[in-house]
Specification:
Strands 3, 4, 5, 6, 7 and 8 form a six-stranded antiparallel beta sheet that branches. The chain has a six-stranded mixed beta sheet with strand order 10-11-12-15-16-19, sandwiched between helices. The longest helix has 42 residues. The chain contains ten helices and 19 strands. By secondary structure, the protein is of the alpha+beta class. 32% of the residues lie in helices and 23% in strands.
Amino acid sequence: MAGVVAGPSMGVLTQALAQDSSRSDMYQLLKVFGDVVQRVRSEYVDPVDDKELIENAINGMLTGLDPHSSYMNAKAFKDMQIQTKGEFGGLGIEVNEDKGLIKVVSPIDDTPAARAGIKPGDIITALDGKTLVGVPLNDAVDKMRGPPNSKIVLTVKRQGVDKPIEVPLVREVIHLQVVKSRMLPGDIGYVRLTQFTEQADAGLKQAVRNLKQQAGGKLKGLVLDLRNNPGGLLDQAVAVSSDFIDQGEIVSTRARHPDDSQRWDAKGLDVLAGAPLVVLINGGSASASEIVSGALQDHRRAVLLGTKSFGKGSVQTVIPLPGNGAMRLTTARYYTPSGRSIQAEGIVPDITVHESRETPQSFGGDRESDLNHVLSNRGGTGTQALPPRTDLPAIAKQIPDKPPEGYPKFDPTKPDDTDFQLQQALTVVKAMAAQKSASAN
């Protein structure tokens, strides 16, 4: 009988000893941390601010985990809350930090950065001639923000350009117009979604209603433009997906602890009533944009056209620290309805079309997989979960993957004449509409 009891007892004892050893190691490391702080406070060449010292240490701990975990002091936390509501001050650039470099994820439409030609993948190396190399992301963002009408010069390193580019800008109060819409030829609607702020879902529904009225009550198809959309709120991504999918899973998240994993399903009605849908994506489409793209692709509700998306398949939880800002912590990976994790992989479009003839050169981390401390892709089914599409219109095979020689350079003021990807999307959605009409007759 003693032998029967001894097994579990030894197991419990071993576990307790391991926990004690772990606590002892932690206490020792905290002692080292305290010693370092004290040495810096007493011997650093200049006096240091205790609060700034500790905040830097906290931020270093979090940013060392992955590219999206970070600490926000009270001011940065307030700025983030303002931005998710759709209005903030600055230049209009979504940026990330990689290996000590500040990289542009995407410019925001109709902002100083977008009008000046800032591009996804640009590396901002200096502000007003002062280097940003090694400057923490939050500090860099603070430096780019400032009073409206104040001037600033960005020094940018760009793919395929040998010399740094100096970009003079004037700061503005950024009023995010997250939804833009217009009619395309043939009773085809166009909706551009620039970010997933609190207004995204409501704005999309209203845009579709307006387009239907312009089309005489019914749209023959829709192009949803998610290019250079860096993401935003998860609940808005779920709501926008539900605007086109009647039922079924939209996205699921898997956390460290199984009890914390979640799943979101579609609820509502397809606002297009089954009309054809083409979604435009590119390397600046990230996070919430990839949730929507992945759900629509898995459900075969839309045809994706463009280039592979950014590949940010992780969920960040903002945890307030009362009186001391908040921490943004990566708490889960998200998965498409078919079980794909697109973390560091991205969404591959059904029809690949590049925006220009130039082949992009790899520089500075163009996608999630290029970032420092990138979270691994784990637990998903991989791209093999999706069988080849058999529902694409025949014309899909004739769509060129890049513009022809002599095609004009993209001009945002003349998209109908210079946006090659949009023109190919229009060709595809028209063919889908004609196919649907023929099958109904």
